[in-house]
Amino acid sequence: MDSLDLAMTHLRAMADGDVEAARACLHPDHLNHMAVDEPPAAAQHGVPGFMATSAWLRSAFSDLSFDLIEGSSDEHATFAHVWMRGRQTGPFVVFPPGGAPVSFPATGREFAVRQAHVFRLRDGLHAEHSAVRDDLGMMTQLGHLPPSPASIARMARWNISGGARKSVASVVASAEGAATAATAL
C-alpha cells in the first residue's frame, strides 16, 4: 500500500470505526495532535486513541466520509486534502482545552467541509497526525453558527432539559469504551 492509500485507509477507518484497518495504518505510538479538543480517551496513543476519536465522530455524524481532493507524500509524511461529509444525527460534543465540554444537539443537517491532514510516517505507518479543519464552516452548515434566535432557543432547551449533560456523559463513555475495546483485541 503506498502512502496516499495508507492515508485514505486511515480516514476510512475513522469514518467506519474499523479497528483492523486502523491497526494496518497506525504505529503503536501514534499521536493525534488534534485530540486536544476531543474526549479524554482520544488522547491515548495508538489504536485506542484513534478508536476513541472515531467513536466520538460517529456518535454525532452518520454517513461520515472523507473524499480525496488531492494528496502528496514523500518518505517522511503524507498530505491529504479531503472533503469531510456527514449528517449530524446525534449530539456533537466539543471539549475545549481547559474548559467545560459543550454539546450541540442534532440538527439533521448535512455538511461538507475541506480538511488538510498531515500524517508523519515511521516504519511505514502513521506515527503522528495533525490537521487543518474548517470547524467554523461545519458548525455554520449544521445551523449552530452564527447564533440566531432559533439556535439560541435550541441550545437553551437542550441545556435545560438535561440533554447536554447526558450527551457529554454518553460521548465520554462511548469513547472510553471504544478505546478499551481496542486495547483488549
From TrEMBL:
UniProt xrefs under InterPro entries: Cyclase_SnoaL-like (IPR009959), NTF2-like_dom_sf (IPR032710)
Protein name: Ester cyclase
UniProt source species: Longivirga aurantiaca
Lineage: Bacteria, Bacillati, Actinomycetota, Actinomycetes, Sporichthyales
